[in-house]
Amino acid sequence: xxxxxxxxxxxxxxxxxxxxxxxxxxxxxxxxxxxxxxxxxxxxxxxxxxxxxxxxxxxxxxxxxxxxxxxxxxxxxxxxxxxxxxxxxxxxxxxxxxxxxxxxxxxxxxxxxxxxxxxxxxxxxxxxxxxxxxxxxxxxxxxxxxxxxxxxxxxxxxxxxxxxxxxxxxxxxxxxxxxxxxxxxxxxxxxxxxxxxxxxxxxxxxxx
Length: 208
Description:
Layout: E1 10-13, E2 16-20, E3 25-29, E4 36-43, E5 46-50, E6 60-65, E7 71-78, E8 81-83, E9 96-101, E10 111-117, E11 120-124, E12 128-131, E13 133-134, E14 141-144, E15 147-152, E16 155-160, E17 163-168, E18 171-176, E19 187-191, E20 196-201, E21 204-206
Parallel strand pairs: 1-4, 2-5, 3-6, 4-7, 5-8, 6-9, 7-10, 8-11, 9-12, 10-13, 10-14, 11-15, 12-16, 14-17, 15-18, 16-19, 17-20, 18-21
């Protein structure tokens, strides 16, 4: 949150997070931070029974406050096994979230060069949610190879105000809505508000 702190070359790897009320990993940039934060890796972590009771907080939660001009570039999230995230259904927090708080109404380049891949997500309150994602140095961001099953959410993967993004080769099954929105069917992949140049291909969606 520090306005002048720059966070580069950060690796969070091979940790075990179990029975945590809040997020296993939380990063938040305040609206006074205007820096570029580069080369992050969040990989090969085990997260079980996390974010239970913490509204809208997932296992991996990265947030940009409204008004910030900060960016994250070259962010890789892979190989994390996430189970029972917010499985009490207090609020259906997605297991992996890249957000702007609040989401806003137009696209902003906040997360550039993102790769979210090969993360098994099971038996929890949500899958993957991203906002304000974009390409970096001409290379599209990517969400691929994730296996998402038996979750309570509106969608397995959901995007807001993102552009230059590939979503491919994910397997999504058994997406069920939580009681507060029981009138809405579970969705495999939801391209929500304000997305541009988003390619969705070779995904398998079952029993949603």
